[in-house]
């Protein structure tokens, strides 16, 4: 394992640049490896990886069949994480996620309870079609995402580190779905919209995936290296200009803060967590794109995935056919001046 530094001991500039360059190299290799298996969808891969590199969870939203599950499996392999998958269904119970206590009997006939860990005990948890489970089951996942431990029968169990939830949600088939509560949506660092592939990518998918053999991705780093990169990202300096841009963007998305467009269209806006997410993700995006410091461009590019699930439109704006994305695009345009 390389040099693991805690956020309390800042690296000197030379060591910081050396560590960042090593991370750039690893991230470039990760991108190459993922691209062997996932065609097109560069934006989706980028945003999902940014969420993981920033130490957070991501919500992938898109119609079925766009390789969301395949992407998560591939990331597990490439990042060297121990991964589990849960298919969310209406009858899924909290214990199906967390685990449960079973009765054991020893040779002398004495009985005792033993905790059997559920699939949440993984470094990368894929929560497939998360909006199909009941609110009670969704909230069981919520505690683990927020607190990195679970409590069963009064006993605390810590989750492995790192711990990332990548959840998928289908927007179309609203039958049999329970919308995620705002508090749960806010736990996701980013919302990643997965759209249909473009023509060239779809042609490649047809040719590459219908033959006898399919390309496979290989491991590039392991969990401890991922944690080193996550620590490094938290140490990257952010200029005052970028911090101010983050604050003004997040605050402009809140009604009652002097932005006429927002006051007219937005029912409630993003809380401080949105600013924290932009601050972390802007650094991760800079590294992902081969730079050592985040720029205003990173903030503007991440506005949609960070803000989209943290704000809601008024009834009137929805009736006019507006979307949250339209509002965010307008705010970014104003910020760019």
Helix and strand arrangement:
Elements: H1 13-35, H2 42-53, E1 58-61, H3 68-78, E2 83-87, H4 94-98, E3 99-105, E4 111-117, E5 124-128, H5 135-147, E6 149-152, E7 155-158, E8 164-169, H6 182-185, E9 190-193, H7 199-209, H8 223-235, H9 240-252, H10 260-265, E10 266-268, H11 272-288, H12 296-307, E11 312-313, H13 315-319, H14 324-336
Parallel strand pairs: 1-8, 1-9, 2-5, 5-8
Antiparallel strand pairs: 3-4, 6-7, 10-11
Helix pairs in contact: 2-11, 9-11, 9-12, 11-12, 12-14
Defining key terms:
five-stranded parallel beta sheet; 11 strands; alpha/beta; Helicase, Ruva Protein, domain 3; globular; AAA+_ATPase; 2 domains; 337 residues; two-stranded antiparallel ribbon; ATPase_AAA-3; Rossmann fold
Kindly describe this structure.
This is MoxR family ATPase. It comes from Rhizobium oryzicola. The protein is an alpha/beta fold and 337 residues long. It folds into 2 domains: 199 residues, Rossmann fold (3-Layer(aba) Sandwich); 100 residues, Orthogonal Bundle (Helicase, Ruva Protein, domain 3), CATH 1.10.8. 47% of the residues lie in helices and 15% in strands. It has 14 helices and 11 strands. The strands form 4 sheets. The protein has a 5-stranded parallel β-sheet. A hairpin with a 5-residue loop joins strand 3 and strand 4. Helix 2 crosses helix 11, helix 9 packs across helix 11 and helix 9 runs parallel beside helix 12. The longest helix is centred in the first third of the chain and has 23 residues. It starts with 12 loop residues before the first helix and ends with a helix. The N terminus is likely disordered.
